[in-house]
Write a structure and sequence with these properties.
single chain, 196 residues, alpha/beta, Rossmann fold, two-stranded antiparallel ribbon, 9 helices, 7 strands, 55% helix
Length: 196
């Protein structure tokens, strides 16, 4: 059976995780790249060895990723994130494809904040952008993370802008707190399942 793979992305605070949770509740499997990358960075012996060689012996403490050491490494040089991603992303891609093979659903979803930047969009058949206006996203981040407006804006500016993500995406969901999400997702599911 061919499985239709859909990548879900959106800017920070857009609600892409919530949208993916709604897909999950509707019976569709969702692979969350961020969660799986964190799991693999602890469980995968090759990744552990390569990250330790790159970051240093303090990359792990008691079998867990040492977030302080990793953060210090990442912020020390702009190229360090690229080096870490070059180690982690190929392993996540492989893990996703293996995960897809284990699914019985005709449609599966991949949640990735950096779907296009990581090249993960090359693994999926369609891409879905979750969009929320900037003011809504900033308010959500401030409430959720207890941060200032300036800190929220800095996070937004660190990501690919929404217009570019929309241009690159096949599907769009508006998550502004007013539009009916359930209706939009049902329409998308109908569209995806009719294409089979």
């Amino acid at each position: 059976m061919d499985v239709l793979k859909v990548g879900v992305t959106g800017g920070i605070g857009s609600g892409k995780s919530y949208v993916c949770e709604l897909f999950r509740r509707k019976g569709f499997p969702v692979y969350v790249c961020d969660d799986e990358a964190k799991r693999l960075m602890v469980e995968d012996a090759v990744l552990v060895d390569r990250l330790t060689a790159l970051i240093g012996e303090d990359a792990y403490l008691d079998g867990q990723l040492n977030k302080k050491a990793v953060a210090a490494f990442l912020f020390a040089d702009a190229d360090h994130a690229r080096q870490v991603n070059a180690i982690v992303h190929p392993r996540v891609k492989d893990d996703f494809l293996q995960w897809v093979d284990r699914q019985s659903s005709s449609v599966v979803f991949m949640e990735s904040a950096i779907l296009f930047e990581s090249g993960f969009d090359g693994l999926v058949d369609a891409t879905l952008m979750v969009y929320a206006p900037l003011s809504v996203r900033v308010a959500r981040m401030m409430r959720r993370d207890g941060i200032t407006e300036e800190m929220a804006m800095a996070r937004v500016k660190a990501q690919m802008d929404d217009e570019e993500k929309i241009r690159k995406s096949n599907l769009l969901v508006i998550n502004d707190g007013e539009s009916d999400l359930d209706t939009q997702l049902d329409e998308i599911i109908r569209f995806l399942t009719v294409k089979e």
